From TrEMBL:
Pathway: Carotenoid biosynthesis. This is Phytoene/squalene synthase family protein. One of its GO terms (molecular function) is transferase activity. Its EC number is 2.5.1.-.
Length: 290
């Protein structure tokens, strides 16, 4: 396939998520290119809802084009996806459609009531990414591996929700379930006013524990992956989980501050994860922090 198409996908992941880019850049071809293509399409799906004025397609157009992928034209993502499904025949379109369902729900369900609703949303928009990546990162499958891949996606989405509380609040969205808020004595009025007190800290602490538990489930079978894939997954998870520490360092002010992981911390995490993969040192993966 035209190298420029891969370069366009690579540009999107490099711009949209340096953590993902650094973690997966060391994968061998064609796994690396496949991750870039998956990320690019997921980014386009996300933008179609969050920034429709900048997106090349509406989410309804994306669904139609994916359904008729053999004939889809007009954007680099369509030949990229045709290559993806041809190269990795174990990968199906189903998780992409489910992710679209999740993104569509953002247009109608903006205030979450129950933990069950949140879990389902996290599965649709992020657990599905685990389902997409699994056939790309390993050559076999199975229910347990699929469950762990889904758990990792859900863990990362909960981290996103914690990090983006303020941004989502300004968009009129509240992903923190009302039943969880009530359990901690934190009111909807507190949320709208951006109140950070011991009730809010205990609320975020519960969400943090939920995310870390899902990370633990997700990484429980990391040793069954090809080593380079396992390294990439563990590194991406490590980068993401460290956002929770950044939130704590910001004294849980997720209303006015955006938690991020600096390059020095990323390098420390890289070295820590790399120490568990001594066979890879010196031969790949490539440097994960620039």
């Amino acid at each position: 396939m035209n190298e420029m198409i891969f370069e366009r996908c690579e540009e999107m992941i490099k711009k949209g998520s340096t953590s993902f880019y650094h973690a997966f850049y060391g994968l061998p071809s064609p796994r690396r290119e496949a991750v870039f293509v998956i990320y690019a399409f997921c980014r386009i799906i996300d933008d179609s809802v969050d920034e429709p004025e900048k997106a090349p397609y509406s989410i309804h157009e994306l669904r139609e084009q994916l359904q008729a992928l053999e004939k889809a034209e007009g954007h680099f993502i369509w030949p990229a996806l045709r290559w993806l499904f041809d190269t990795f025949p174990m990968l199906s379109k189903a998780p992409f459609f489910r992710q679209m369902d999740g993104q569509l729900s953002d247009l109608t369900l903006t205030q979450y009531s129950t933990v069950e609703e949140l879990e389902h949303y996290c599965y649709l928009v992020a657990g599905t990414v685990g389902e997409m990546l699994l056939p790309v990162l390993r050559d076999d499958s199975g229910m347990k591996v699929m469950e762990s891949g889904i758990a990792l996606g859900k863990a990362m989405q909960i981290v996103n929700i914690i990090r983006d509380v303020g941004e989502d609040q300004r968009r009129g969205r509240r992903y923190i379930p009302l039943e969880m808020m009530k359990a901690h004595g934190y009111t909807e009025e507190d949320f709208h006013n951006g109140i950070i007190d011991e009730k809010f800290v205990s609320l975020l602490t519960e969400l943090r524990k939920r995310a870390l538990h899902l990370f633990e489930i997700g990484l429980s079978d990391i040793g069954t992956y090809p080593q380079v894939s396992g390294f990439a997954i563990e590194l991406a998870s490590s980068y993401y989980a460290s956002i929770l520490q950044a939130v704590e360092s910001n004294e849980y002010d997720v209303f006015t501050k955006r938690a991020y992981v600096n390059d020095e911390t990323k390098m420390q995490l890289f070295l820590e994860v790399a120490s568990r993969y001594p066979a890879l040192l010196g031969e790949g993966p490539k440097a994960a922090v620039s």
